[in-house]
Amino acid sequence: MKQGKLTNDQLQKFIIDKITPKNAETVVGAGVGEDCCAVRLTDGLCVVSTDPITASSEQTGILAIHINANDIAAAGAKPIAALVTLLIPPSATEERISKVMQQLIQTAEGLGIDIIGGHTEVTDSVNRLIVSVTMIGKPVMPGRIFKTADMKVGEDIILTKYAALEGTSIIASDFAKELEGLLNEDDQKQLMQIGELLSVVKDGTIAATVAGVSAMHDVTEGGVIGALCEMCDASGTGAEVDFNKIPIYPITQKICDHYGIDVFGLISSGSMLITAQNGGAVIEALRAAGVGATVIGKVTEQGVFDISGGKRREIAPYRADELYKVLKTRSF
Question: Which residue, among 227, 213, 201, 209, has the nearest Cα to 156 in the 3D structure?
Fold first, then answer.
């Protein structure tokens, strides 16, 4: 099989169709485009999400917390606790494990998340460190969660912050020596700013309180294009997006041009897609909290189209994130 995520068709056929929820307490189960599940407890809803980090090396612990906390936030919930699993290759050093644990703890503390348990194991089943986090959260609006599948035709599509934040951060840190002659002092300043933008917890928890918001989805593997297509697949809708309106850091564009990759297909934790009846109201609430946001398009009945430059071109997700084109040049 090809590297990267399963296609939506493969995911549906080999995974989701084989899962049949049997408990009445299961409110949201496995589904295409849904990053969180929800279980109804006696006193409310518990929102849960899990994802591993397999591609990054220098920021593994940081990203492991952020990507899972971001999934919780996209459901309109506040992340409160995490379980961490470390699968450690025999070749790993104690210094490496210590660094990753420090990243996990500091990032979790910064978001108000408790690491409450997990599992660690040294195994030759992996050839590099794998970190998998299960995140637990509670809805900001009691009893309500937001599903990717709930976006509706006619709504505004909003993107928070910038495209390809995570991809920029990963490439710049893991390929720092290779990029020494390319990145200047201004680029390094932008990189520091990007490092502070990888969480969408504020984005999601604020948007959840705005009337008219129907769906949220954090932009991860597959970039903006992948996230848009996932939302459309999940909701049975389409989208028209002006990609010229999407903010991009100059350093991001420089790195993408250097490696010949598409910025809109590059992993992008730190930005969130939100659909709402009134995009202006969402942007006003986010900006009041210091979160940048832009209306980039509309939800339509079918098909995902790029309408930038006055043209209308149908687009499809990349088979694998653009990051893999860069990572395949690295020797682990």
Answer: 213
Q: For the chain, what are the domain ranges? A: 26-139, 148-327
206 in helix, strand or coil? helix
Alpha carbon 131 to its chain's center = 16
As a whole number of angstroms, the distance between CA 154 and CA 303 comes to 14
CATH superfamily of this structure's domain 148-327: PurM-like C-terminal domain (3.90.650.10)
Predicted confidence band at 21 (pLDDT cuts at 50, 70, 90)? low
What is the tens place of the pLDDT at every residue in 49-73? 999 988 657 889 999 999 999 999 9
Tokens of 332: 């682990």
**Homologous superfamily of 26-139:** PurM-like, N-terminal domain (3.30.1330.10)
**Structure-token pair, residue 163:** 């495209």
Q: Which tokens in the block code for residue 278? A: 């009134």
Token pair, residue 184, equals: 């200047």
* pTM score: 0.86
- What's the Rg (C-alpha) of the chain? 19
Q: Which two tokens stand for residue 34?
A: 């849904």
Q: Checking DSSP bridges between strand 156-160 and strand 293-300, what pairing results, if any? A: antiparallel
> How far is residue 141's CA from residue 181's CA, in Å, rounded to a whole number?
49
